[in-house]
From TrEMBL:
Name assigned to this protein: Stage 0 sporulation protein A homolog
Protein's cellular compartments: Cytoplasm
Main location class: cytoplasm
Keyword Disulfide bond: no
Lineage start: Bacteria, Bacillati, Bacillota, Clostridia, Lachnospirales
Listed SUPFAM superfamilies: CheY-like, Homeodomain-like
Length: 444
């Protein structure tokens, strides 16, 4: 499943395109519309989208500048320019920025959907190549394997003993030819390869072997992060891998956005295609002195988690605690997540309830959240949110004197015209007619 962001300063265009995409049979788990290029860039920094469909002529920052900035964060996003400009200079600049398509307004629904289907096919092909690539590392070399095992054993001892001296660490890395610098901070990626025996899928990795899964995960990370990060990984035990990622360039614009996007995509791949429902913790800005003790603490905390498919991000090597659910009185951790998410949606129907926002708030992988919600709730997350919002709108129409424009904002619609259309489709009549048919003399 993919995520698409649509950027245009005209609200009616945004809502129209969103409606066309949501009604089509396309593999999107989020369709985000944004009316400001600066706001779109802010959202992209937090979560690089798979596809961007953007106008060029916009206030604050035009679409070309916007895409130029996103390329510094995550270069693999598919870009489709949708604009009224027909001048060659704009098209030329769009192509230079990697805009795969340049569509002129007004574009027909069929043409837009054809382009999206074609680019989704390209993304699928890239996905396949990324996760079935050969390891860049010469792991078959016996000497290197022996060095790796020795370093792994020694580093495991360091974690167990809460640390070691930087000089000793430097000597060990030089001895084993590990190209990481002690002058730079690190990002730690802790992976919990929990095997899900309830699944009956054929194993992508073949017979269950933690070391082969570890090497596969490391190979994919090395390939995906090539050119931006140096990477080394250690198998901590028969359940956890610890990877150390170090930025090559100190002025890396995207900070950890690209790293987080890569790791989350890998987690989605394992959840959707293998019997390993991996949980991941990523911590940035971890110094070498704090690394062993910090890694040990994160391992201990993740061992206490009852839930699966979680994704945590910790900025800085502080003593931030991962949320623990071991005290939850529930026979099924999936039920617990669904109950918590449903409660939040009902309590805050006016807030941003996108898949990205909910997965971030509840610290769970978006693909996994989408899948277990549909399985446990018997309807998609989007359908459930619409049900809650329409039921709340119905209640406000009948029991209050609020205007339709006020009600639309109370249930998460910034545009009252769009709310009226959706309500009419859902209820079979407009908000005004619905209110007249269900008059309540005790309105507040």
């Amino acid at each position: 499943m993919y995520q698409i962001m649509i950027v245009d300063d005209e609200q009616y265009i945004l809502e129209g395109i969103k409606e066309v995409i949501e009604q089509a049979d396309l593999p999107f788990n989020e369709v985000r519309i944004v009316s400001s290029s600066k706001e779109a860039l802010r959202l992209f920094r937090n979560n690089p989208y798979d596809i961007i469909l953007t106008d060029i002529s916009m206030p604050e920052m035009d679409g070309l500048q916007f895409i130029e900035e996103t390329r510094k964060i995550w270069k693999d996003t598919v870009v489709i320019f949708l604009t009224g400009y027909q001048y060659f200079s704009y098209a030329k600049k769009a192509i230079q920025l990697g805009g795969v398509e340049y569509l002129l307004k007004p574009v027909s629904d069929e043409e837009l959907l054809d382009v999206l289907r074609r680019e989704i096919k390209n993304l699928d092909d890239c996905w396949y190549q990324r996760f079935f690539t050969k390891n860049r590392d010469s792991s078959n070399d016996q000497l290197k394997k022996e060095q790796q095992l020795l370093l792994e054993k020694w580093f495991h001892t360091c974690i167990k003993n809460n640390g070691c001296s930087p000089d000793l660490l430097q000597n060990k890395f030089m001895e084993c030819k590990i190209p990481l610098s002690l002058e730079k901070e690190n990002s730690l990626i802790l992976v919990d390869y929990e095997y899900d025996e309830s699944q009956n899928r054929e194993h992508i990795t073949g017979q269950w072997n933690i070391r082969s899964v570890h090497h596969q995960f490391m190979s994919i990370l090395q390939t995906a992060l090539y050119g931006d990060f140096m990477l080394e990984g250690f198998l901590v035990n028969r359940r956890f891998s610890l990877f150390i990622a170090q930025r090559i360039m100190n002025d890396y614009t995207g900070k950890d956005a690209g790293l987080l996007k890569t790791v989350q995509e890998m987690q989605s791949y394992y959840i959707e295609n293998t019997d390993h429902v991996v949980s991941v913790s990523v911590a940035s800005e971890v110094t070498w002195g704090a690394l062993p003790a910090f890694a040990k603490k994160q391992i201990e905390r993740m061992e206490q988690l009852n839930s699966k498919g979680e994704f945590f991000y910790i900025s800085g090597s502080s003593d931030d605690k991962l949320p623990l659910y071991s005290d939850v009185d529930s026979g099924d951790e999936k039920d617990f997540f669904i109950i918590k998410i449903k409660k939040y949606i009902k309590q805050y129907p006016e807030k941003d309830l996108s898949l990205t926002e909910l997965s971030s708030r509840f610290k769970i992988n978006p693909s996994y959240l989408s899948r277990i919600f549909h399985k446990e709730a018997k309807k998609s997350l989007t359908e459930y949110i619409l049900d809650v919002r329409m039921n709340k709108a119905e209640e406000l129409l009948v029991h209050t004197n609020m205007r339709v424009s006020e009600i639309s904002k109370k249930v998460g619609f910034n545009n009252s015209g769009y709310f009226t259309r959706i309500f009419s489709e859902y209820m079979g009549r407009s908000p005004t007619i619905y209110r007249k048919e269900n008059l309540n003399p005790n309105k507040k």
